[in-house]
Amino acid sequence: MRASIADLQADFDELLFLCRNAEAELAEAADQLDAASLLADTRDLLRRQLSASQRRYGSASERVLALRQRARCECPAPALLDELRSGKAALADLLRTEQALTAALVVAADWQSPSFLSSAMPASGRHEGRIRPHVNDYKRDRHLDADAYERRYLEAMVDGPLGLGALLTSCGMAAFTTILSYLAMERELDGPVVAGAGLYHESRLLLERAVPGGIHWIDECDTPASLRTIESVRPCAVFLDSLSNTKWMPVPALGPILDQLRGSDTCLVLDNTGLSVACQPFAQADSVRLIAFESLLKYAQLGLDRANAGVIIARADDARKLASYREHLGTNVADVAVHALPRPDRGVLERRLARIQRNASLLAGQLRERAGLTVEVVYPELGGCLSIVFNEGEPDPRREHALVEAAIAAAARRGVSLIGGSSFGFNTSRIYHTATRADCGEPFVRIAVGTEDRLELDGLADALAAAIREVAR
User: Fold this and answer.
1) In angstroms, rounded to a whole number, what is the distance separating the alpha carbons of residues 149 and 141?
2) What's the mean pLDDT in 205-233?
3) How many of the other CB atoms lie within 10 Å of CB of 167?
4) Taking Cα atoms as reference points, which of 295, 273, 345, 291 lies closest to residue 164?
5) CB-facing half-sphere around the CA of 313: CA atoms within 13 A
6) I need a labelling partner for 328 at 20 to 30 A (CA). Which of 40, 236, 358, 369 fits?
7) Helix, coil or strand: residue 446
């Protein structure tokens, strides 16, 4: 009970961060709009909407603070726990919706093709006086909102040397396709290429089609063999996921691989979506050519699931060239998506990741004890996802699909929140039958663990264990 109350206190801290983050966005937008040339009706509309949104966030902040104070009760009881859970759920849902309204409101006066000169009324919204021809006058290419977020992201989220560049993209896959196109079109994939067998299936599919000479696949779980392959092949590029989003979730030993690549011309492309800020490859990648990327739709959105976005991190020379390819490929992030993202704050994200990882580890342990020998629970003690793999018989998609349905039904009978859906990084745990098509890799059932409090997690384990036993009979 006390552990659950402490969890909820931390949840209220995160909700308060979201409130204050949005309030800062709105205040900054109000200042920018006050200085902009706008027609009277437009200015009046925006002022009224900004004020209304600021009042709503003020009210939400007061509710969060009141609930956080209630959570400090010295004698926690089930009724209090229910009150706090209900309040958290209501506020989280409200703030998720407000985040979209805030993003739209911030950019409401702006243009996708803002003017740099005008004879009368400018067409540049908040950014009047800051638009430069052929630099930021066409948002598909680049824009000031992304520039500001990229600087904040580097400062808050990335450990490493000076001179790194960050580039926002329209999603995580857009980040990968930008990197892949850059390397392929610069003829940097004409030689041998090494890739992890656990590479995300969409990345793997594109990589196989982009590399004319074939790929040397390595088993990320076999570090000595991987290092021998890299040494013997001397690849022009290595593609890895820091934590694989596949059935067995292999984790490459990045330290030894970086040591192996140090001083070479090999480019290491690392998908860091599975670990986010918990993995800091640039901190140990001196004299290694490294390009890292991450989907910002997952952990970085703090469960909001509001907008597609991705980010690429690279050293200055690669970053400049990648920016050019991003422009020509049309993979830049939308301005409204930038403001739908919470501002980067490493402490907030690290605390959230720690909760999710704690829950994933506890859930995996409980399921291993209670689900019987008919399934293997795969969890590498990193990240927030685990796999349920049936041990008996041939793979049967109907069985995996039945498990998803049985889990939702078992959760409903117990009054436990569980969602059948894709992706990960949410407040509420999700269960999903992945890779249902042959070109999507090996199918399995993934549980993407949420930020449930300690007692909620026990209820979730009960439901999942019952579902596994039912389907495995």
Assistant:
1) 16
2) 95
3) 27
4) 291
5) 32
6) 236
7) strand
The answer to whether the CB of 403 falls within 8 A of the CB of 442 is no
Cα pseudo-dihedral 229, 234, 235, 240, rounded to 10: 40
Amino acid letter, 32: Q
Tell me the C-alpha to C-alpha distance, in Å, between residue 237 and each of 191, 265, 367, 388, 415.
Answer: 8, 9, 39, 33, 50
Q: CA-CA distance, 143 to 21, in Å (whole number)?
A: 21
Residue 298 CA, distance from chain mean position: 2
Question: What is the model's pLDDT at position 371?
Answer: 84
3-state secondary structure of 304: coil
d(CA 450, CA 386): 12
User: What strands, in cross-sheet order, belong to the sheet with 215-218?
Assistant: 164-169, 310-315, 289-295, 267-271, 237-241, 193-196, 215-218
Report domain extents, the chain: 2-110, 139-344, 348-472
Domain 348-472 is in which class? alpha beta
Three-class secondary structure of residue 58 per DSSP = helix
- At 56 the pLDDT is 98
* DSSP per residue, 401-441: HHHHHHHHHHHHHHT---EE-S----SS-EEEEE--SGGG-
Alpha carbons 390 and 392: distance in angstroms, whole number: 6
Side chain identity at residue 161, one-letter code? P
From the list 93, 95, 80, 82, the residue with the least C-alpha distance to 16 is 95
The torsion angle over the Cα atoms of residues 84, 88, 89 and 95, rounded to 10 degrees, is 160
Range 139-344: architecture per CATH: 3-Layer(aba) Sandwich (3.40)
- CB contact at 8 A, 60 and 19: yes
DSSP 8-state code for residue 375: E
Q: Please report the pLDDT score of residue 295 as a whole number.
A: 98
Backbone angles phi, psi at 419, to 5 degrees: -120, 135
pTM > 0.85: yes or no: yes
